UniProtKB/TrEMBL annotation:
Pfam family, one: Pept_tRNA_hydro
Protein family according to the UniProt entry: Belongs to the PTH family.
Domain of life: Bacteria
Protein name as catalogued: Peptidyl-tRNA hydrolase
A single GO molecular function term of this UniProt record: peptidyl-tRNA hydrolase activity
KW RNA-binding (keyword) present: yes
Length: 188
């Protein structure tokens, strides 16, 4: 079983912001895998969808805490499903990667991403897989990173973000059918 987490902030205010790239990618993955609707599970707290894929059962979850508290939901989900960090895959935005790109990493540090930092602190390990979705603009930012990630995604940005999300979904499908190494070899 795999637990796949999309990181973002809950609520309509943040729905189309850069920081919600993980939520957007998870929604697309759910559509591709033919999963059911996301349902609120207050005990985690997260929106959860279960997918009975051909490869293995997959749990998709969107923490309903704010980004900086994501670890609270992720830790509860891991404990409930009796999974290890090796069974955890996290989809999230990455300001260090160019917009439209995607990278897969395993066992990497948080590199300043507070949602990832929260997960590492909550589960006591960084030995999980991350699908990092690039959101870095080509033009210099005139606002701090904390403000940029909460900005609405532009029309041009939407096109490039969809490209990265498509690659993310393809990489996850390959990882599910083969393994993470195959996804890394093809998409990194």
């Amino acid at each position: 079983m795999k637990l796949i987490i999309g990181l973002g902030n809950p609520g309509p205010t943040y729905a189309r912001t850069w920081h919600n790239a993980g939520f957007l990618a998870l929604d697309e993955l759910n559509r591709e895998l033919g999963g059911g609707p996301f349902k609120e599970k207050k005990k985690f707290p997260a929106m959860v969808a279960e997918v009975a894929s051909d490869w293995a059962p997959v749990i998709l979850a969107k923490p309903q805490t704010f980004m900086n508290q994501s670890g609270r939901a992720v830790g509860a989900l891991l404990r409930f499903y009796r999974l290890t960090p090796a069974d955890l895959w996290v989809l999230h935005d990455d300001l260090d990667l160019p917009l439209g790109s995607m990278r897969v990493s395993v066992g990497a540090s948080a590199a300043g991403h507070r949602g990832v930092q929260s997960i590492i602190a909550a589960i006591g390990s960084q030995e999980f897989t991350r699908f990092r979705i690039g959101i870095q603009s080509k033009t210099p930012r005139k606002v701090p990173a904390e403000a940029y990630v909460l900005k609405k995604i532009s029309l041009t940005g939407t096109v490039k973000l969809r490209q990265a999300i498509g690659e993310t979904v393809s990489a996850i499908e390959l990882a599910l059918t083969k393994d993470i190494a195959a996804a890394m070899n093809r998409f990194n």
